[in-house]
Structure formats: C-alpha cells, structure tokens
Model the fold of this input.
Amino acid sequence: MSPSRSSRAEAAAIDGAAPVFAALGDQTRLRLVARLGREGPLSVARLTEGADVTRQAVSKHLRVLEVAGLARGVRQGREQVWQLQPAPLEDARRSLERIAERWDETLARLRAFVEEE
Done:
C-alpha cells in the first residue's frame, strides 16, 4: 500500500470514529455507555434510576448514542431496552491506537535527531 493510500485509509478510519468521539464527549452519554457496558441491556426507566437527569433527557442521549452507532434500542412490551453496540467503540479504540503509534514514531525520530546533535 502506498503512503498516500495508507494515509487516506487512516484518515477515513479516523473520520468514521469522529461521531463516536463526539457522542462520548458528553458526560451523561459517557456514563450511559459505561453503565450499559457494565450491566448489559437496560430500559430507559432503569437507566434513569440514580441519574441526575430526567427520563426524557436519558431518551434524548440514547438517541444520540444510537445515531453514532453505540447503542441500539429494542422494544420489549411497553418498554424500550437499550444495549451497547461494541463495534464502533472497537473502531474508535483502533483509531486512537493508530494515532498513538504515529506519535510514538514521531517522538522516536525527534529523540534520535536530538541525540545526534
């Protein structure tokens, strides 16, 4: 793979992860994701328990997470049960790892340059 093609692929992967990072940039949504990850599928009523936000606010935050691909709601009787979708989180994690690798390479080159002087 040529460097420019590799760079384009990396940029596309980072762009794909941007909605995930944007959704997780809110403290309430980050807490919802953590809770769904820890406790598994939960209804809006259960997610509202112990939270400092209303049920309506939790529902709005869940819709943002759904648009970002992080959560999915399934109707079960009168309730909607929400579950975490791990694939976008994995993609975002891989994007962060690629960025960290680039920084490590850059810092290693800088160190080598400084030590040559």
